[in-house]
Amino acid sequence: MAWLKGSAPTPPNPTATGAAQTATNIGSAQANVALNNMNQITPYGSLTYAPDAGTFSFLDPTTGNNWYIPRWTATQTLSPTQQNIANLGEMSQTNLAGLAADQSGKLRNLLGSPMNTAGAPAASGTSLFRSFPYADLDYADVGSQQRSFGDAGAVTRDYGPADNFSADRQRVEQGMYQRMAPQLEADRLRMQAQLRDQGNLAGGEAYNVSQDQFNRQLTDARLGIMAQGGQEQKLLNDMAAQKAGFQNAAQKQAFDQAQGRATFANAAQQQDYTQAALRGQFRNAGLAQRLGQEQAATNAENTARQNWLTEQYAARNQPIQEISALMSGSQVQSPNFVNTNSGNVATTDIGGLTNARFSQDMANYQQSSQNFNQIMGGIFGAVSGLTASDKRIKDVGRKLGTVFAAGPDGEKMLPIHEYKYKADPTSTSHVGPMAQDVEKVDRGAVKTIGGTKFIDMTRMGSILRDKREARHG
């Protein structure tokens, strides 16, 4: 790291920078003109470039410089063969122009009177569409479609009583129970008498077995009565369901018949509609065919008239076209020059380079000033008086830079180092000069005590007070 001495860099002079940029631009422009003015030679001729004897004077209003810029001339030359054709063409054009002048006098009578179209065939068809009948845009109304039909009645959605014939079932079962009850009671009494006669008293095993069998028979009889009641209930329910089904079948049949009549009526209406549409289409097709025939005949008549007029115009224009052809003459084949490669010399941005260099110098100066101020702050931030700065008691690190110091023998460069004291257990880093280097600048600023060199910081301040500037080293 090195320190700079002196003030901030001087900004570039805009006038001088502009003059240098103008000179560079003019020089690049002249070089580009010389590069791109490429001579060309073809079988039909050549194209050459040469600078003029004179120059163009340009006065720079900013700097007052007068620039002299050369002019160039492009010369195109025909080959001998093409030049001979050009000469013959000029001679031919002179002769043809005289002939055309003689012929133009004859056009006075031709063009002096208007064109007579009295003998042209007459045009036709001007009233064709006004007298021709119009096409049919609609046809007879055949009536509206039938969108509804008679009511066939409501659909039967349930049948039978609300209890689903449960009361009838109970009546059947109750009647059967009443019919069988006397017989069952007589059978029970007869069984008990027979058991007593056989010596089987109530509570005995034989008595209990016989009683159990009788109870089972009684249960089977009851179950049979219940089954019979269920069959009666199902029979009544089936009869009601059949009756409801018959009613719904009759209702559906009536619905289908009404729907069939409506469908038949709509089919007949659709057939009438289709027939009316076909009649309208047939009539319009006949009208279109007839119109086409009439239009074809009209086009033929108009074409005959147009052909007659075209012939008359051709006869009137033919002399004029002949004169134009006589005046055209022979054509010279001009050289076809190719597009040559263009070479451009880039203009050097003098202004940009100058400003960039100034910006770099200013940045370096600002960084150097900042670093110098930080080191000086570290040096003068030390305690005043004598400071032990003998490099023999320090671990001297890298050199950070140099500063000017004013001693009895004049100005000298004083090195600044980074260092640590050998006896410092914390190894704290410091920045400053070595006593041996200060002694070379001013012996009075260094004192030796007990074999160790000390810097008198008060005397050191007077050495560096007016020299805190940087110098590139």
Write the layout of secondary structure elements.
Blueprint: H1 14-36, E1 40-42, E2 45-59, E3 66-78, H2 80-111, H3 128-131, H4 166-197, H5 205-328, H6 350-380, E4 386-388, E5 394-407, E6 410-421, E7 430-432, H7 435-441, E8 446-449, E9 452-456, H8 457-464
Word description of this protein:
There is one protein chain. With 473 residues, the protein is α+β, with helices and mostly antiparallel strands. The chain is 55% helix and 15% strand. Among the domains are: 128-328; 382-464, no CATH class. The protein has helices at 14-36, 80-111, 128-131, 166-197, 205-328, 350-380, 435-441, 457-464, and strands at residues 40-42, 45-59, 66-78, 386-388, 394-407, 410-421, 430-432, 446-449, 452-456. The strands form three sheets. The chain has a three-stranded antiparallel beta sheet. The chain has a three-stranded antiparallel beta sheet with strand order 4-9-8. Strand 2 (45-59) and strand 3 form a beta hairpin. Helix 2 packs across helix 5 (205-328) and helix 4 (166-197) runs antiparallel to helix 5 (205-328). The longest helix has 124 residues, at 205-328. It starts with 13 loop residues before the first helix and ends in a 9-residue tail after the last helix.
